[in-house]
Every structure is written in C-alpha cells, then in structure tokens.
Specification:
single chain, alpha+beta, Phosphorylase Kinase, domain 1, Transferase(Phosphotransferase), domain 1, PH-domain like, seven-stranded antiparallel beta sheet, five-stranded antiparallel beta sheet
C-alpha cells in the first residue's frame, strides 16, 4: 500500500468529533469535524484506501495532497493534517463555511457587476500564484471555488491538477482528458493537452457565468458543448457591461497563446490592467470587504457550527432537532463501509423499536440461538457490541447489550457474568467525544466508553433514539 506523507503536527481520527456531513460522492466523504483539543472546525475528506487501490487512483490522491500542501496563499484551501488507518485516508482541510460560489450565482440568478468584478479579481490572483508554481488546476469552475467566513474565495479540488515535469509521477498521463465539459479549453479537445493558459479559458467561462447565470457554451449534450467550444460559438448579451464583454472575448480565444494573461500577451500584469478591473486593490484584495450579495437558502439555513458549543447529547443527536448526526453517520458509514456486530442490521445502528408483533417474534426466535439471549430476559436486543469501559486508570472489555425496557447491561464475556447496568432515567444523556470515544451521563456518574471499531456515533444515536421512544410512550 502506498504511504502518504503526513503534514507536521500529526493528529489522528480520535482527535476529531464529527459534527455533520458536508458532502459525498463515489470516491470520498467530506464531514465537518471539530478538533477536540482546540475546538476549531475543519472539513475532513475521507477516502477508502481499498477502493482507491482497485480503481488505480492512489497516485491521483497523492498528487492532490502534494499540490495542496505546497500552496501558501489565502485563496486556496489549506491542508492542516493528513493521516491514515488500515482502511481510510484523511485530509483535514480548512472549512469554507459559506459554501460554493455556484450556489450564490444560482441564488442571485446572476451576480451584480461589482461582485463579479471582485471575485474575478481574486481568481486572477489565485491563477497568477499557480502560474508561478507551474501548476495548472484543469478543473476550475464555480463548484470548486468556496467562500470563507468573510466571503473570500478558497479554490479546492486539485485531483486533476497538472504539476511541473519534475514533480510528476511516472504513471501520470499528461494527455488525459480531464475537467468539466462546459469549462474545457479547446486545446484539450483538439490536441488532448493542457497548457499554462488553459485555466484562463476557464476564467473566461466563470466571468461569463457570474454575469449571466449560464456558461457560454451551454447545450443539452456534451457533444454539442464541445462543438461550440472548438468553434468558439458564444455571444455575450448586449446588456452586459462593455468592459466585461471585452475581457471575456480576450480570454475565450481558441489559441491559448493569444489569451489575455498568457506569456505572449503580456502575462498577468496585462490581465490585471484590463479596464474591467479598474479600481481593484490588487495588493490588499484579501483584506478588502467583499461586496454584498444575496445569500442562498442553503447557506442561510446552515447550523452556525463555527460558534456553537455542544453541551448535551440532544444538541447533536436528538431526532427532534433534525437528526443532524444521524445523517452524518449514515452517510459516512455507507461510504466507508464500516462494519457492525448487530444481527440483521447492515448499517450498525441497531434494531428498530417499531416492529410488528410478527417481526418481533421472528427476531426473538433468531436471537434465542445466540449466547447473549440468556441475559435479555425475554427482551429484544436492540444493539450489541464490545466496548472498553474506563474507570480511573482501569480499562476493562465488556460486552454491552442495549435492551428493550429500556436497559443497558454489560457482561464479562470470559466468565459470561453480568458485571453491571447503566441506570435509565430522563436525565440520561450521551456525548460523542471522538469516532471511538463516547460518554453516557447519568445522575451522579459518567460512563466513559470506547468502541475500537469507531462506532461511537452509532451507539449514541441508538441510545438517544430508544430514550426518546420511551419518553414519548410515557414509560420513562
């Protein structure tokens, strides 16, 4: 297995508490997580090593790590830590709280001229920096441009970036087709090669999109999109600002050497001198206050986790508060294939209390075949698993059973004796500390529990669900 270079001040999964799911695709899950020691929030990108190896994408991920770790500029996402375990890779990245630029374009239909000018200027400075580093992004688009707390950009997703020759791996293909159809430069379609000016073409597409709400080469099929790109078939609306029209026209040029910003056309100094950018404070742009624009509901509706302090388990886990943590753990576990020990429960959250009598009898019959049934006293086992129970300096492995009733008992699996029970009451609360560590608070005592499989969230969610069920039934 290919090893990944760790960023200084190494941490591990146990140092972070998951707050919510930010997104997921076929290759990765991204969660918002809090550093337990500092309280800071980060976006953690989690990837399945086995899947990456099977799809021959480990080198691509290693390249992305290498690129991001080299970038020291305010307009790029920052890589704070990297670590791995037997199954997963973790990239701990800066958290851009205000989401994607695309959502703002869509929410506003198009951006006001001053907003488009400001964010175009920030993208120009970011591309100038990449040009100095001899890096080509190759997938620049509004979805990959994030907005921070103070509404400045942070560019992300360097999985398809092109590095200087001395930094490329032997297996890296320099002529592969990469990018998103509506932002692909014509040279990639005709010669299958990207160059230093390829990102300038994407910049022209983004400026056009910010001012109109659509990409310049939009069509119903990729085939027709590509035909339009190669033939440079686009028109700016007559109502568009004249300086903006001129800038877009000089960026969307088929010959990459003739694009404004290319070396032959005077480089980035000439691009920044274009009349469209009149009044831009290039030296201190990252300190300027961005122009105001309408925020999308997806951003306005977000939990303000950056300033929130979690005090009780209900703040995170209660179904009555939206089930945020439930959605996180479901999304993560589906993507990361976390395993569980619960019978007939492939997701690991435990059995439901809302079963028909027929289904309950079937499950009880199957439960009778297990060695743990004798401890259940005729009750259904809702969740089962081996946990470490910590008290003072002592650590003891115990088999924990969450039963109907409700009851939580723990058993010494070597002697098959019940060693204790966590008392239930309305005051019982759970608290997730890390992927593996969680607490169960009861009046007068706190149980410190460790799940080495990393399923602390699952345990807390199930306990809280059972508690809520019995409260609603007036049985607790």
């Amino acid at each position: 297995m290919e090893k990944f270079t760790s960023v200084p001040n190494k941490k591990g999964p146990d140092d972070f508490m998951v707050a919510k799911l930010l997104g997921e695709d076929e290759e990765s899950t991204v969660v918002l997580a809090q550093d337990v020691s500092s309280g800071k929030y980060y976006a953690i990108k989690i990837l399945d090593q086995e899947k990456l190896s099977q799809e021959d994408k480990l080198s691509q991920v290693k390249k992305e790590q290498h690129v991001i770790s080299r970038l020291e500029h305010p307009f790029f996402v920052k890589l704070h830590y990297t670590f791995e375990d037997e199954k997963r890779l973790y990239f701990v990245l800066s958290y851009a709280k205000n989401g994607e630029l695309l959502s703002y374009i869509e929410a506003n239909t198009y951006l006001p001229l001053e907003c488009a000018k400001f964010y175009s200027a920030e993208i120009v400075l970011a591309l100038e920096y990449l040009n100095c580093m001899h890096i080509i992004h190759r997938d620049l688009k509004p979805e990959n441009i994030l907005l921070t707390d103070d509404m400045h950009i942070q560019i992300t997703d360097f999985g398809t970036a092109k590095l200087p020759p001395e930094n490329r791996t032997n297996s890296e293909r320099t002529t592969s087709f990469v990018g998103t159809a509506e932002y692909v430069p014509p040279e990639l379609l005709t010669t299958k090669r990207s160059c230093a000016s390829s990102d300038l073409w994407a910049l022209g597409c983004i400026v056009y999109q910010m001012l109109t709400g659509k990409t310049p080469f939009h069509d119903d099929s990729e085939y027709f999109v590509f035909q339009k790109i190669v033939s440079r078939d686009f028109k700016c609306p007559t109502t568009m600002n004249e300086d903006a029209q001129d800038l877009i026209g000089k960026l969307l040029v088929v010959d990459p050497d003739d694009r404004l910003g290319s070396a032959r056309q005077g480089g980035f100094d000439r691009l920044k001198a274009h009349p469209f950018f009149r009044g831009i404070n290039w030296q201190n742009l990252h300190k300027e206050t961005p122009p105001m624009m309408h925020r999308p509901s997806s951003v306005l509706g977000k939990d303000r986790l950056g300033s929130e302090t979690f005090k009780t388990a209900e703040d995170r886990l209660s179904p009555s508060k939206g089930g945020t943590m439930r959605r996180v753990s479901q999304g993560m576990d589906k993507q990361l294939r976390l395993q569980c020990s619960d019978p007939e429960d492939n997701e690991g959250y435990g059995l439901s209390l809302n079963l028909s009598e027929e289904e309950k009898e079937r499950r009880l019959s199957k439960q009778a075949e297990t060695p743990w049934n004798k401890f259940a006293d005729g009750r259904l086992i809702l969740k089962i698993g081996e946990l470490e129970k910590k008290r003072g300096l002592s650590l003891k492995y115990r088999q924990f059973l969450l039963l109907e009733g409700p009851r939580i008992i723990y058993i010494d699996s070597s002697t098959m004796e019940i060693k204790g029970e966590i008392p239930w009451s309305k005051e019982l609360m759970t608290e997730v500390k890390t992927f593996k560590v969680f607490l169960v608070h009861v009046p007068g005592r706190t149980y410190h529990l460790i799940d080495r499989k990393g399923n602390a969230i699952k345990w807390c969610r199930k306990i809280e669900e059972v508690k809520q069920f019995y409260i609603e039934q007036n049985r607790l």
